[in-house]
Design a protein that fits this description.
There is one protein chain. This protein is an alpha/beta fold. Among the domains are: 103-187, no CATH class; 506-569, no CATH class. The protein is 44% helix and 12% strand. It is built from 20 helices and 14 strands. Helix 1 (29-37) packs antiparallel against helix 3, helix 1 packs parallel to helix 17 and helix 2 (50-67) runs parallel beside helix 9 (206-218). The protein is globular. Residues 597-608 have low confidence and may be disordered.
Length: 608
């Protein structure tokens, strides 16, 4: 690490970086990024949710470092990220701005988050405050009966009035909460905050802030001389790869961002509620209008531009759509599972709601992994702090809050979190569904020693603690800096390569042994052997493989089978008891058209 005025200008090594999602936990990332930036050039950068915001900021700073001509300019982007904690400490609570329609439910939800006691009681008390005028109106008939009963000294009438007040108020409260949850929230795509600055607000909401910070960090003018939002193509020019994850709730699947295909369209009227004018003006200029009329009679559909033209701010926002808090992002595509004739019907142009990437992969540590690493892929993970497991942080230095495994025994034990109460039960279901694969992957030898873990006190730090004070934000930023420093001091790339090899190669050898046994199986009455499958069989699907390619595939398989046969005679035992699978899995970049789709530049219009 260097302490020169231009400490980020000339990194000596290269790395990839993945950051975990966590809403406000993202305040950890800036100082971790800038510590790593003193030594490493970031080649591949990824993250989910809040980690996607950090990834986009990192990519913008790396773009400026690679495109700038002077040391001062090369340094400037990361210097702005290093100063970001001060800005976050001052503005974090104002980033989440509900609309006028969603503000009542936002206040009720925040009361539940803030309380250390009963969440139901906190929500009920806040609901009484929020809807007091409606409750008063509902109580008026009963109040009139009470007044009449007092005037006539008719206690029965007064008691009836009290019952009417109670029943009317409870009915109105139930109705208002039902309407807020079942009507208003769905109308706002299941998010209380759109991300745009609301009328009357003096400070920017998070999407406006993200867009403005990206341009400040990257510099106002692109390397081609244009003043426009930073795009994926700008990053590609300097071999910077940016990836994130989003979840298409309508298709029940994740997507890798930027999209690998061009099947999605958007509506101008809907995107204007999500993205600031600086993004929209560029996006509309680069998007192709679609000849589609919406259910409301408006013709304002556009095809998303190709990946190289996509502003990186959109990638961050599409990954950050925490359900209930942050509005989902609607896109449209044709439902290719319907019959071909039906595709010509505009009604098959379906609205898809994209939500938080963390729903399907909150820590996509696998995004840039190969079998053997050529450079380190660091992960910055977020976990719950528990003094019983991690030790007391008595001096407040964060020593027990930041951990990078060094010994092979570290990080292997899976902690137990008791499930107590309904909210804990629901939370445990969601956390298990979205995190189990990332959790187990992060414990493997060859993976765990490159992942630094920052531990947060869930009761007051990160997550849904939207109104953390400046002191807390600064403390978490300090933990991030410590995480980066721990990686610089303790990470050993050669040891990491050794452990990855010892995890991967015995697993690969077992797969080759099984492949050899299967390839060598003789033909039977009902089944031909694999050499014949690869060279002679007349298939009904995937028929575009040439004869020469089939012969080449068979030759390759013969060589692999020979290696597997040798391994069958002399197996290589794994050096660890950890269980590892080597298998084919679908990519998040899988095209929604299905297998072997045509690849036109634009999705088919209804009349095609």
């Amino acid at each position: 690490m260097t302490n020169t005025p231009f400490r980020y200008a000339a990194p000596s090594d290269e790395c990839d970086l993945i950051m975990k999602g966590g809403i406000t936990s993202g305040v950890v990332f800036p100082r971790a990024i800038t510590e790593l930036a003193t030594r490493y050039r970031f080649m591949h950068i990824g993250g989910t949710s809040a980690g996607a915001i950090a990834a986009v900021m990192t990519a913008a700073a790396e773009y400026r470092r690679q495109s700038a001509a002077t040391a001062d300019e090369k340094n400037a982007g990361f210097a702005l990220i290093d100063a970001m904690p001060k800005e976050l400490a001052a503005n974090l609570p104002t980033f989440f701005q509900p609309s006028a329609e969603t503000a009542p439910l936002f206040r009720v939800g925040m009361a539940m988050v803030r309380t250390q006691g009963s969440k139901v009681a906190a929500a009920g008390l806040e609901a009484l405050r929020v809807f007091h005028l409606a409750l008063l109106l509902a109580a008026l008939p009963g109040l009139a009966l009470i007044v009449a009963g007092i005037a006539a000294t008719d206690w029965a009438l007064g008691i009836l009035g009290a019952l009417v007040v109670l029943i009317g108020a409870m009915a109105m409260l139930t109705y208002q909460l039902y309407r807020a949850v079942a009507v208003v929230l769905p109308a706002h795509d299941f998010g209380l905050c759109s991300g745009l600055t609301q009328p009357g607000a003096k400070k920017p909401a998070f999407t406006n802030w993200i867009a403005e910070r990206i341009e400040a960090i990257a510099g106002p003018v692109r390397s081609d001389g244009e003043a426009r939002p930073l795009t994926i193509g700008d990053l590609d020019r300097y071999e910077i790869t940016l990836k994130s994850v989003t979840t298409d709730l309508s298709s029940r699947r994740p997507y890798e961002l930027p999209f690998g295909d061009r099947v999605h369209n958007y509506r101008k009227s809907e995107f204007e509620r999500l993205f600031p004018p600086s993004i929209m003006s560029y996006l509309l200029k680069e998007s192709k209008p679609r000849d589609i009329v919406g259910p409301d009679g408006v013709r304002d559909y556009y095809q998303l531009p190709p990946a190289r033209k996509l502003p990186v701010a959109i990638i961050a926002r599409m990954s950050l759509s925490f359900p209930g808090l942050i509005r989902g992002v609607p896109l449209y595509r044709y439902d290719y599972s319907l019959r071909a004739a039906a595709r010509r019907d505009p009604s098959t142009h379906i609205r898809c709601l994209f939500s938080d990437g963390g729903i399907t992969s909150n820590f996509p540590i696998h995004l840039f992994d190969g079998l053997l690493p050529g450079r380190p892929t660091f992960g910055i993970s977020l976990a719950s702090y528990d003094p019983r497991r991690h030790g007391e942080d008595e001096d407040g230095s964060g020593g027990s809050r930041v951990h990078l495994p060094r010994r092979t025994a570290e990080g292997k034990a899976t902690p137990v979190y008791p499930v107590e109460g309904l909210f804990a039960f629901v939370g445990a279901i969601l956390d298990t569904a979205r995190n189990w694969q990332d959790t187990l992957q992060s414990q493997l030898h060859g993976y765990s020693e490159r992942i630094v873990e920052v531990r947060l006190d869930d009761a007051k730090e990160g997550g849904l603690n939207l109104d953390m004070d400046g002191e807390t934000v600064n403390f978490l930023s300090m933990l991030g800096g410590k995480a980066g420093d721990v990686v610089l001091k303790n990470f050993d790339f050669n040891e990491h390569r050794w452990r990855r090899a010892m995890t991967m190669l015995p697993t690969l050898s077992e797969s080759l042994r099984k492949l050899s046994n299967r390839y060598m199986e003789p033909a039977t009455e009902r089944r031909i052997d694999y050499p014949a499958i690869l060279t002679e069989y007349d298939p009904t699907g995937l028929v575009g493989v040439t004869k020469a390619d089939r012969l080449a595939l068979n030759e390759l398989t013969q060589k692999l089978a020979a290696i597997g046969a040798e391994l069958d005679r002399r197996p290589i035992p794994p050096p660890s008891s950890q269980k590892v699978d080597l298998r084919i899995t679908a990519s998040m970049d899988t095209n929604p058209r299905g297998a072997n789709p045509p690849r036109p530049d634009t999705p088919p219009a209804p009349n095609q």
